Amino acid sequence: MSYFSQLAKIVAISVVLLLLGIFFSIFWQSRSAIATFGINFLTVSDWNPQKEVFGILPQIFGTLISSILALIIAIPIGLAVAIFLSEDWWFMPKFLQVGLIYLVELLAAIPSVVYGLWGIFVLVPWLRGVFSFTHTFSDRGMLPAVLVLGLMILPGITSLSRDALLSISPDLRLAAMGLGATRWESILDIQIPAAKVGISGAILLAWGRAMGETMAVTMLIGNSNQLRFSIFAPGTTIASLLANQYNESSGLQGSALMYGALVLFGLTIVVNGLAELLSSKDFN
Q: Is 173 part of any domain?
């Protein structure tokens, strides 16, 4: 075995050990809350440090709803952009297409706090004008958080979906054209089904990132620890709860926050595991 193979094996094992170390560290710090609240921690809506009553049902609901709504926004746009950037369109010069690819990838490099500030100073005033007819709209609420979150996960869906489309054999495109298929028939009926494994993996990876996003969501969502079903009302997520309260927490509250972090860790592991399962299987 070469030195490079040995080094790669050591690095791979180190990553697994690091992941296990993070898990057991969070679990150890959350053991008091686990012993006190058990599974009821996931079904209780109250979060009251004074009474030492803690439950993260609103946070779980907000995490899932905000991430799913962000996916609903980002998937059609991201897939459309991926198709546009993976095809040789006759009306677009190649250098312009390459420039657009770099711009899309640049969106992924923007810090989340910048997205949050853009949401506060640009998006929220615009939404306030659009929804001026309703008194239920809140400047800090689920809607602006979802829109910014959708923008943040858009580059990942676009880049990975484009890579999946480019990995398709050119023979499929040529065969479809030879049989008389139009460009869009080739894209919709041949290329997207052939790339569905990679596209599905991109969507699940984006979902995992959306559930764990912290700073931009914390700045925009309102951080209301109540179970609310209106997209115009303030909401909360597990990540925003941790960001807001961990520095000032102690005792059972700190353990409850780590219990919440353990739940979020489990959700992201499940989603990323599904993405890896999809990318390793051939459904064609």
A: yes
Q: Does residue 31 fall inside a structural domain?
A: no
Residue 234 sits in which domain range? 54-280
Strand partners, 222: 235
- Global pTM exceeds 0.85: yes
CATH number at residue 70: 1.10.3720.10
In which band, very low, low, confident or very high, does the pLDDT at 284 lie, cut at 50, 70 and 90? very low
User: Are 103 and 183 a contacting pair, CB within 8 Å?
Assistant: no
What are the angstrom distances between the C-alpha of 19 and each of 115, 134, 217, 265?
28, 46, 25, 10
Q: Other C-beta atoms within 10 Å of 229: how many?
A: 9
Give how many domains the chain has, as a whole number.
Answer: 1
For Cα atoms 112, 118, 124, give the angle at the middle one, nearest 5 degrees: 120
Measured CA to CA, the distance from residue 154 to residue 76 in angstroms comes to 10
Q: What is the pLDDT of residues 39-68, one digit of tens each?
A: 888 988 888 888 888 889 999 999 999 999
Position 272 in a domain: yes
